[in-house]
Amino acid sequence: MERLRNMLLALSMLLKKWMLPLKSSAVLFYLLMLTLFAWLAWYTVDLTLQLADNNRQLHTLAEKQRHIRTVQVSFYQLETGVQRFILTGNATHLDAAPQQTASLYTALDEISHLSQDDHLQLQTVATIKNGVIRQLAHQQQYIQQRYKAGNSGQQIAMLPVDNTVDELLTNLLEQTRTGILAAGDRQTFYTSRLRLPLLLGGLITLLTLLANRSYRKRNRTLQDTMARREKRFRSFIEEAQVMMFIADLNGNFTYVNKKLAETSGYTREELIGRHYSIFLDADTVERLRIAYTEQYVYNKPHTNHEFLCTVKTGERKWVEQHLTLYRENGVVKGFQAIVKDIHEQKQLKLEMERLAARQKETQSRLQAILDYSTSIIFIKDLQGRYLLANKPFEEINNLEPGTAIGYTDQDLASNGATKSGNSDHVVFEKQQPLKVIETVTVNGAERHIFMSRFPLFNSDQEMFGICGIGMDITERVIYEREVIAARKMAEDAKQVQEMFMANMSHEIRTPINGIMGMAYLLDRSPVNTRQQEYLDGIKDASRNLLVIINDILDFSKMQAGKMVLEKVRINIPSLVAKEVMRLKPQADKKGVHLSYYTDERIPASLTGDAVRISQILGNLIDNAIKFTAQGSVKVTARLLETDDHNNTHVGFEVQDTGIGIPAEKQEMIFESFTQTSAENTRRYGGTGLGLAICKALVTMQGGYIAVKSTVSKGATFYVEIPFCSHADAEQEQETHAGPIPENLLLGKKLLLAEDNTLNQKVAYYLLQQAGASVDIADNGRIALQRVLETNYDCVLMDIQMPEMDGYQTTTLIRQTGSDIPIIAMTASAIAGEEEKCLKAGMNDYVSKPFTPEVLFNKILQSTGTPVTAIRPAAPVNGHTAPEGLTDLHYLHTLLKDDTIYVRELLQDFHDTLPGIIEELEQAAALEQWELIHYLVHRLKSSLSIVRIPTAMELAGTLEENALGRQHLNTLAAQVHQLTAILREACKEVAMEIENIT
Length: 997
Hints:
This protein is 56% helix and 16% strand. It folds into 6 domains: 2-203, CATH 1.20.1330; 240-341, Beta-Lactamase (2-Layer Sandwich); 373-488, Beta-Lactamase (2-Layer Sandwich); 572-725, Heat Shock Protein 90, CATH 3.30.565.10; 749-862, Response regulator (Rossmann fold, 3-Layer(aba) Sandwich), CATH 3.40.50; 876-997, Four Helix Bundle (Hemerythrin (Met), subunit A), CATH 1.20.120.
């Protein structure tokens, strides 16, 4: 087979060589001949293989025949020896019995082996073997009887003759002989058939040779054509825009093209026979002579040279020469070259080299500046080896000048260098700047060094090292500690109140989010009437509590003077209608008729704060419904006047038929935490902040609010607010409040910028369930790149992210000219956070925790899509929080008992938690408060999904203390307390993962 394969390969290569210059008809002919030859070869090989297989069968049958005869002979010899022993009693007749028995069984085994492919023969052999065993057993019985009789003269019966074995052996032998004869016939048949392919092969070879002769003749004609083409090609070379020449081995020109003559200023006649040195100075001539000699001696195929040449006019030009050996009939006769004018490129290269030299000089000067700088500066590679270290660094680490370069901190430890491997590791892993305060001992005194480490990236954004810049801040550290202590003692009650309210509302939001999320999902499942009543109660209570929290937050902002009003275009009639329709289900539930009227003269587009106007109207309408048991509530908006500043004044009235307000109470109801009576507080609930907030918002917008009421007859609240006119503005598309439908976000392409894996997966799940297509960016840099590459409908932007936070990312997006809607997402409850997001260029703001309805509505409002209907959410199964540290009720509810997804999220949390624990303990050991604040903030994001209440509370305290550098003496202990809780919780999460099927 190998020989045949090589033969076919050689033939195909030969045909390929022949066919290259031939036409398609010749190619088809040779392919046909090759196909026929291949078929004949296959046919011959197939016959040869069949003949070889037949020979193997013939050999097997011959071996089987030989072993059958061995069995017959051995069996006969055994039987004869036993008969003679019985007759004579001479035991020598039994001496050969063991060898004969062994030969008999060996032959039978060989027959069995050779008959493996014939089931019937195997059965026959087995029968023979059993018969032999029986016969040998009988022989043993008679032998024993003969031994017992001895010389007593007792007559012993002769061994009975059993012909069964002989008959079976005879039949088997006959079958084998028949097989041998058949194999012989097949061998004759295969041998005769081999003659046909040999004859056909000869015929095909003859036809191929005859055809080749004809095609060779045609090939000569083709060669003549090629010669003419070569002539035209030489003409093309002659007119080419690159210089070409041929020179003999002595360097004298034998051919130059037109371009070379024109460029050099010489005629061809002047150049032919002249030496190439006419263009070169002596040094260049010698250099090229050596190069040409080496190329000739060592038979180099080609070389490249750059040099200055002088043309006839005396002008010097840089050229690049590509030189090859010129051969005739395989013998080197000279050199041929292509020469390009590279004068401009060379001049540019030389200029760049001069710039590089100047840059090197500048770098030397920079090093001198670094050495005389008061800051500590160094650069390390990814292996921690120092690439640069200035003089202050060497001095503070007690190092000799230049000894740090190429060494790591471990290498320099014996010289007293600062060990900063832990901080470097954080920068390497996170690829983010790290600022720490390190304490070193200099001349026996402790010094505090503020060290800023940051990663260095090349043009491909690949990290190649880190840079550290440090400053001795010992005096400042001492001063700051004193200032911090003094500031802590001097905090006034207003600041404490603001932080308390913000923190309280933030902590309450976490369980409320779980309650509202579960109620939202449960509302989408089929429930009976009683369950629906319970569910409505949960929803009403949670909404009321959320209103209270929002009131507290707004009040906190106002008290701190951080409430900022927007100025956007507003459609007053649409805004009034939206608020009325939003609260109409609440009125209908109580049997209160809610209606509204808007003055047609109100301009379609005014400028003001739509959110705050909606908040004012919402509060007033909600109060009217709440304090009206039966009757009606009517909302009216009228155009009043236009003042000297071109402001359009609009008056709003909310009139109800409720319980009314006593005259003596009508002034105090606008004060903080005040209601008309304690009975009303118990009966109707609330914080007493709603009207106070309304009054503050109205006042901030330059308007006023008043009330007119009679007890038991109702009340009328009147609000007047000035707006800027925009008569030529386009009327904004109205949005209609209502239930949120399934697949609400179908067709929306969203970008989720979030670095926390758990938050990513939960948000992705909820948005995808609503029909949206979602991409995820792990940090602000990736988010910016995605926005530039892809057209999204909206971006959900987390505020705190690595590499680039939400504020920076939004600013850069806006600088590109993009107006893509951006919605901020943050768990911070500090007053002014929302205003900061809007100031950065974001379109809207969602405070965590949020209900899916809130998030979906924000997305729809930002993308200009009206909300038309709401349908219940998908059902969820109830879960009871397990005993212990972890409470997974919220996670199961949020993900609608999708056990596969719940397990995946828990596994992610379980896998990442040990790393966070280790980083926290390491940061505590190094007193890296900024890093602790960053890690705890990220941890809180995960704990908002996988609830660990004790850890969440402690993490909030840690985050606040680390950010404000407060209670630093107990901060490390708090970190260890937190990590201990997390370790136990990690075990519980592992058990929960195992329990999920």
